[in-house]
Design brief:
With 189 residues, the protein is an alpha+beta fold. The protein has a single domain (28-184), classed as Glutaredoxin, CATH 3.40.30.10. The chain is 28% helix and 26% strand. The protein has helices at residues 3-8, 75-87, 104-114, 129-134, 172-188, and strands at residues 16-23, 26-31, 45-47, 53-55, 64-68, 95-100, 120-123, 137-138, 143-144, 147-151, 157-162. The longest helix is centred in the last third of the chain and has 17 residues, at 172-188. It starts with a helix and ends with a helix.
């Protein structure tokens, strides 16, 4: 590995899944497992907008949507995050998190510029552990691949979508329906 690469991309992963995603039609390898509905959600370590460590436990035990994007400063990521922000008030106690490799400062600036205040930003820039544990890390680019995960109150995955082409939108309605269904199931339990 060159010195420049070691400095710019210090994260080397041995967790090569054999899976790929595409960005503008070009394939890139993904690190980490392919999670499925019913799996237990893996732990992770990211930082919040205050640069404080955050892991799965700190996100609480209610219904959560993890919206994973490569970078907020791209059109589809912007639209995805705004879409979840727009519907957040209609979801009751369901919490929505956006995970990206963007620095917390950039996330905070972006949210302030666009009035996004109902989605909680998490940055995976330090370790890439979210991406590696959830199978969304593109190590060659050091960004996340687009995905959505819905977790129930017991940290079981209720919805998983890995978007095959990074530049395409996820199925928002499927994720929102899964979150609403998990929420109504937890209320009736």
């Amino acid at each position: 590995m060159s010195l420049v690469r070691a400095i710019l991309w210090p994260m080397e992963t041995t967790n090569d899944s054999g899976r790929t995603t595409t960005l503008r039609g070009k394939p890139f390898r993904l690190a980490g497992p392919e999670l499925r509905v019913g799996d237990n959600a893996p732990d992770f370590e990211v930082v919040d907008s205050s640069l404080q460590p955050c892991n799965l436990q700190k996100t609480g035990n209610g219904i959560r949507i993890f919206s994973v994007v490569p970078s907020l400063d791209t059109p589809v990521c912007d639209a995805q995050t705004r879409r979840f922000n727009d519907v957040a008030d209609d979801l009751g106690d369901i919490r929505i998190y956006t995970v990206s490799m963007d620095l917390p400062f950039a996330q905070k600036r972006w949210c302030g510029n666009f009035g996004v205040d109902r989605v909680i930003m998490l940055s995976d820039h330090r370790t890439g552990s979210f991406g590696e544990n959830y199978g969304t890390l593109i190590p060659d680019l050091r960004i996340e691949s687009r995905a959505i995960f819905v977790l129930d109150g017991e940290n079981r995955l209720k919805h998983v979508e890995y978007v095959k082409e990074v530049g395409e939108h996820p199925n928002y309605n499927a994720a929102l329906d899964a979150a609403r269904s998990a929420s109504s199931s937890s209320v009736s339990a």
